[in-house]
Design brief:
By secondary structure, the chain is of the alpha/beta class. It is built from 14 helices and eight strands.
Length: 316
């Protein structure tokens, strides 16, 4: 049985533990906060209760839980690990200190991956003796229900290590996206930043309200994007495919892109307008309740998409 070490048992770390355990990996979890580890079993059980009705807790949910256990020390967690998934704070000094410690403790063959959503591997692993085995494996929250993981190696990361990481994530049921080279924000957050900037600008300048903007994505673009990306979308939006689409609409889209919002859209006014629209979701308790609703809906969607993929495979 392959062994995965999870370092940092917060929201992302425990979701990663769940991802690997339901796919048959043995998972050991360490966190510097003992109270976080004490809650681990209860947190995993809550995830099972939420996802099992939709088939998203593995073939045997209780076996999934049994494969996850807390480690008293970092050394215990890392011993014999095929991959370490680090999910600590997004603070560069902390990340550098932590990766130096991981590099010193982990077996020489262990892949060291960070869940960082903003920090590049070259910014926290450069100069380490084992820098060649370090990379970013950036998930989307919550990773146990949104399967994409962006694999972003540093210029010094070994191609063999990158390939091993891709294999491990794929075996865990995730969808690895291989970054060819580093860029701030990776792919997902750069796309999200552009959509968010224009969304905030349209709201702030009075073209649409928050509800209308969210409905446009939820009931418009999001419907297609749940099962195909924007490149396949344009390939299907003209009789002759993508080249035909760009020939017909490329200039129009270029004009819209030239006048779309950039960093100037992220203002306090926009933040206040969005906050006012969600005034009833402004406490940790109400936000957590809505997150639980979201995760239940994502579990149902994951089952639906999985069933459709299985049907399509059978028909082939």
């Amino acid at each position: 049985m392959s062994h995965i070490a999870i370092v940092g048992a917060g929201l992302i770390g425990r979701a990663w533990a769940f991802v690997f355990a339901r796919s048959g990996f043995d998972v050991r979890v360490w966190d510097r906060d003992a109270q976080v580890l004490q809650r681990l079993d209860a947190d995993i059980e809550a995830m099972i209760q939420q996802t099992a009705p939709f088939g998203q807790a593995g073939p045997d949910p209780q076996a999934t839980a049994s494969r996850i256990r807390a480690a008293a020390t970092l050394e215990e967690a890392l011993s014999g690990a095929d991959l370490v998934q680090e999910s600590g704070p997004e603070v560069i000094d902390i990340k550098r200190e932590l990766f130096a410690r991981l590099d010193a403790v982990a077996d020489a063959s262990t892949v060291l991956a960070s869940s960082s959503s903003a920090l590049l591997a070259s910014s926290f692993a450069a100069g380490l003796p084992g820098a060649a085995r370090c990379l970013v494996g950036h998930p989307v929250n919550p990773p146990h229900l949104v399967p994409v993981v962006e694999i972003s190696p540093a210029p010094f990361t070994s191609p063999e290590v990158t390939a091993r990481a891709r294999d491990i994530y794929a075996r865990a049921g995730q969808v690895p996206v291989m970054m060819k080279r580093e860029i701030d924000g990776f792919v997902l957050n750069r796309l999200q930043a552009v959509v968010l900037a224009e969304s905030l600008r349209l709201i702030e300048q009075g073209y649409v309200d928050v509800q209308g903007l969210d409905d446009t994505i939820r009931h418009g673009l999001g419907r297609r994007w749940a099962f195909m990306g924007p490149m396949e979308t344009i390939n299907l939006n003209a009789p002759g495919g993508a080249a035909d689409y760009l020939g017909r609409y490329g200039q129009m889209m270029a004009g819209l892109a030239r006048t779309s919002a950039r960093d100037e859209a992220f203002t306090s006014t926009g933040a206040e307008m969005v906050a006012a629209a969600f005034a009833g979701l402004s406490t940790p308790e109400t936000v957590r309740a809505r997150q639980n609703w979201r995760d239940t809906e994502l579990a149902a969607l994951a089952r639906h998409l999985g069933d459709r993929a299985a049907q399509s495979h059978t028909q082939e």
